[in-house]
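Lecture notes, continued. The same structure-token format from the folding unit now serves as the input rather than the output. Read the line below as a description of shape only.
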């Protein structure tokens, strides 16, 4: 199992490495200040470090976005969409406006290549929630 993002990327087949690397660049270019990149749950994760917010239910950094290569597809996890009341509905509506097919669970967008994704929407979604906002949403969901 890879311990660094670089090791993760090196472990991918060349075609997937290019796709994941480009999506990683888009995420990093739009990631609000305060999130960190690393390996989390065996995939590339973007999260609030424990030094900033240690009171998570599982004692792990609070995940915001993740990127993974699965057996039959690639996955982009957008926990900020899932954690936002009404956010999933808005995200799905905006995606539909792009004309691209959406294959999504609660927070997991499954795709095969970059052309499957509306990259502007992905960039806006990643940029859309500051660390403080995400912590507030998390705390609100835990108190329900």
């Amino acid at each position: 199992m890879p311990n660094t993002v670089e090791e993760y990327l090196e472990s991918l087949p060349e075609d997937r490495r290019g796709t994941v690397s480009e999506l990683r660049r888009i995420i990093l270019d739009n990631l609000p200040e305060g999130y960190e990149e690393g390996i989390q749950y065996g995939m590339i994760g973007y999260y609030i470090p424990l030094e900033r917010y240690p009171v998570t239910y599982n004692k792990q950094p609070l995940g915001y976005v993740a990127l993974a290569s699965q057996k039959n597809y690639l996955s982009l996890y957008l926990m900020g969409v899932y954690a936002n009341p009404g956010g999933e509905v808005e995200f799905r509506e905006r995606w539909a406006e792009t004309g691209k097919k959406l294959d999504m669970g609660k927070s997991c967008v499954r795709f095969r290549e970059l052309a499957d994704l509306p990259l502007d929407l992905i960039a806006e979604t990643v940029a859309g929630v500051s660390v403080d906002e995400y912590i507030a949403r998390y705390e609100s969901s835990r108190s329900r």
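Point for the exam: The beta strands are 36-40, 43-48, 62-69, 74-78, 108-111.
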